[in-house]
Structures are given as structure tokens and as C-alpha cells.
Design goal:
The chain is of the alpha/beta class. The chain has helices at 123-132, 162-178, 190-195, 204-213, 226-231, 252-256, 261-270, 276-282, 284-289, 313-323, 353-358, and strands spanning 17-24, 28-32, 35-39, 44-51, 55-61, 66-73, 80-84, 90-95, 106-107, 112-116, 148-151, 182-185, 237-240, 243-246, 327-330, 339-341, 346-348, 364-368, 371-375, 380-382. Helices cover 25% and strands 26% of the residues. β13 and β14 form a beta hairpin. The longest helix is centred in the middle third of the chain and has 17 residues, at 162-178.
């Protein structure tokens, strides 16, 4: 295990290969309803892991569809690596960070707060949204100044570019901080699903890599991985000024049980790498927080369907007052357009990003000087 806070070592890493394995990719076959179907590897990675003796292991699939597995040790000049799309297109470079820490539960609101959710591995939709709204430039560098970007969870699953989105958020955190701004990524329900081994929505190319390496896919993001370690520091609930951000919603049960934001954030992180069955048995806290009335699953603030236990309208204000918020902003439940409920005290920002991009419909919100604007790739309008 790398001593990440041992400052007798260099703060950054120099690439010094100790082990280099190159395997030409061969198609991976799995059984489907129609017999065997070939699932080919796609460009992927890097997956980075902390290993023994102050070393790091990197696994990636090149644009030539070869698997590169290398191990290197700590150096003084820093470790920087390229990130490619699943098609093998170069996107940007990332610098590994020695120290990652949890964001404060309550932070001051910037003049502008750009909020989106549920990118689900769709690199094109996610990156175009940020570029067109001048959050990043054409080379994916932070250009949003002292403002804030919020992504309300669910990078995993459904899409083919999970890692590029994670690495971009990881990279932008540092760039934004240096500019006086901030990037806040919150946990969704798909992060603990994948990290706990629920892979039902994962693209098959990821399973092909996992099976080729004989490493369970969830272990590629385990607590000894760079991204797993980083995800373990992410909040579930986040107050930005008077805006309370959470992936799914807040049930009245949450406050009836007396939960506070720091407690929720710590408990959810503690259960992040457990399978669902273990979470249920581990504690009543995890059973509730990871359940249908917990903050990463609860749909009752934005749906009147009985199965989602809709919140009593009179309880919305009670929940907001309990947490010292004026409004709640959620993702998770998908809508045709950005939607609001209870006189804009609840705002839902999850849409079909690919479809809405194509049809020039809303895909995010911008909070600016107390006003709420609905954002598409090409225009904005007051909510």
C-alpha cells in the first residue's frame, strides 16, 4: 500500500516501469440467447491501483486494442497520463493527485453554479454540454473561473466512456480549485451498485476486459484503486449556500430518524464497497440509507406514484427547514425536460442527455444571483 501522506516521498510520481505486459487483444465470447456472440475490447483506462512498496499499477487498453499492464514506483517529477475515448481518440492528460479529501458538507455558493446529473458514460453529451456553456474549453481545461460545477452522480453504467468522465471530473477538481472555483461530484445510486458488484447495466466491453484480466469489474474501482479511493471521499448530500443537492431525494423518514448531513455522507461512504446483501446486514443505518427511502434512491419528491412513497406536500418545507435549505436539486428520476415541483422548492435535472442534445432540449440548470436558468447546448431560459 502506498504511503500517500508520507512526505519523505516525492509528492508526485515519475514513471519508472518495473513490469510491462503487452497482450494482443482477442475477442471475448459470451453466451447469449442466440448462441455465442463476440464482445470485443474497446479502448479503455487507465485503471490505476496503489500497490506495495510505494508503487502504482496501471492497466489500460490501447487504441490498437492491446492490454498494457505496468507497475512503476514513486519519483519526483510527477505522474501524468493520457485519457482516450472508447474509440481511441485522445482527449486530455491527467495528473495523479497524492491527496484527495472530502468536500465540506456546506460550502458557500459561487456567483454561478452549473448543475447537471446522470451522465452515464455518455462522453459526447457530457463534454459538449460543458464546452458549449464555457465550463471547459476545447481542450477540456477549466474556464469557469471562480464558479462551481456540480454533477449529481451516476457516471457508471449504460455508456461506453465511464473512465473519461470520471477522469475529467477528477482533473477539473484541481484546475477549478487553482482558479478559485469548485467542482463537486456527488454519489448517485449507480456508484454503489457497481462498487458493490451489481453490474446489470454495465456495457459488455467492460466485462470483456474484466474477464480477460480475471479481475472482477468492481475491483477495478476498489478501495486500493485511485478512482475508488477518490470516490470514497465523495458526499451524498451537499449544501451549497441554501441549495441542497442530492442524487434522488429526501424522504420525511430521513429527518424523523434524526440524520444530519455529515452523518449521512460518512455512513454512505462506509458502505460504498459492500454488496447490497452485506449493506442490509451491516447496520440499520446502511439498510435505510441504501434503501428506497434513502437519499440515493428516493423518488417521492418528484413522483406521485404510490410505489415511490410520495412525500406529503406539507412535509417538503419541514425537510428543507430541517437542513437549512431553500430548495432541493435532484437527479436520478428522468424527465423529458428540466422540471420543478412544489413552487420550485424541488428541481429535477435528470433528462435523456443524448436525446435532449439532439432535440436542443434542456440538459442542466444554472443558478445565478438567486435566479434559476434552464440550460441546453445552445440557449438558456429562466425557469
Amino acid at each position: 500500500m502506498i504511503e500517500r501522506n508520507n512526505h519523505s516521498n516525492a509528492k508526485m510520481w515519475k514513471l519508472l516501469p518495473l513490469l510491462f505486459i503487452l497482450m494482443l487483444q482477442t475477442p471475448f465470447a459470451f453466451a447469449g440467447k442466440g448462441g455465442h456472440k463476440e464482445v470485443k475490447l474497446k479502448t479503455d483506462g487507465p485503471y490505476l491501483f496503489y500497490t506495495e512498496n510505494n508503487q502504482m499499477r496501471s492497466i489500460s487498453v490501447t487504441k490498437d486494442l492491446a492490454i498494457v499492464d505496468s507497475t512503476f514506483r514513486v519519483g519526483e517529477e510527477g505522474y501524468q497520463f493520457p485519457v482516450l475515448s472508447h474509440k481511441g481518440e485522445y482527449l486530455f492528460d491527467v495528473k495523479w493527485r497524492e491527496n484527495v479529501t472530502r468536500d465540506k458538507d456546506h460550502v458557500k455558493a459561487a456567483k454561478k453554479i452549473f448543475i447537471t446529473s446522470d451522465p452515464h458514460g455518455d462522453w459526447k453529451s457530457f463534454s459538449d454540454l460543458l464546452k458549449r456553456n464555457k465550463v471547459v474549453d476545447s481542450n477540456y481545461h477549466w474556464t469557469f473561473g471562480k464558479n462551481q460545477l456540480v454533477v449529481i452522480g451516476d457516471v457508471f453504467d449504460r455508456g461506453k466512456d465511464v473512465l473519461p468522465i470520471f477522469w475529467l471530473i477528477y482533473k477539473l477538481e484541481e484546475e477549478a480549485a487553482k482558479a478559485g472555483g469548485q467542482v463537486l461530484f456527488l454519489l448517485g445510486n449507480h456508484e454503489p451498485m457497481v462498487l458493490g458488484g451489481d453490474l446489470r447495466y454495465m456495457k459488455k466491453s467492460y466485462q470483456a476486459l474484466s474477464d480477460t484480466l480475471q479481475i472482477p469489474y468492481q475491483k477495478m474501482f476498489g478501495p486500493t484503486s485511485v478512482l475508488g479511493d477518490w470516490l470514497s471521499t465523495k458526499n451524498t448530500m451537499q449544501l451549497i449556500g441554501k441549495n441542497l443537492i442530492v442524487h434522488a431525494g429526501l424522504s420525511k423518514d430521513l429527518i424523523d430518524k434524526g440524520y444530519q448531513i455529515p452523518q449521512v455522507n460518512e455512513l454512505v461512504s462506509n458502505g460504498l464497497f459492500y454488496p447490497k446483501s452485506i449493506r442490509k446486514k451491516q447496520s440499520e443505518d446502511l439498510k435505510f440509507l441504501y434503501g428506497n427511502k434513502g437519499p440515493i434512491w428516493y423518488r417521492g419528491m418528484v413522483s406521485e406514484k404510490e410505489k415511490y412513497n410520495p412525500i406529503n406536500p406539507d412535509d417538503v418545507g419541514t425537510v428543507l427547514n430541517y437542513f437549512g435549505a431553500d430548495r432541493v436539486i435532484v437527479g436520478h428520476t428522468i424527465f423529458k425536460e428540466i422540471s420543478s415541483f412544489f413552487n420550485q422548492r424541488v428541481i429535477a435535472v435528470n433528462v435523456d442527455n443524448k436525446k435532449n442534445k439532439k432535440k436542443h432540449r434542456s440538459r442542466a440548470i444554472l443558478l445565478k444571483r438567486g435566479k434559476i436558468y434552464v440550460i441546453s447546448d445552445h440557449h438558456s431560459a429562466k425557469l
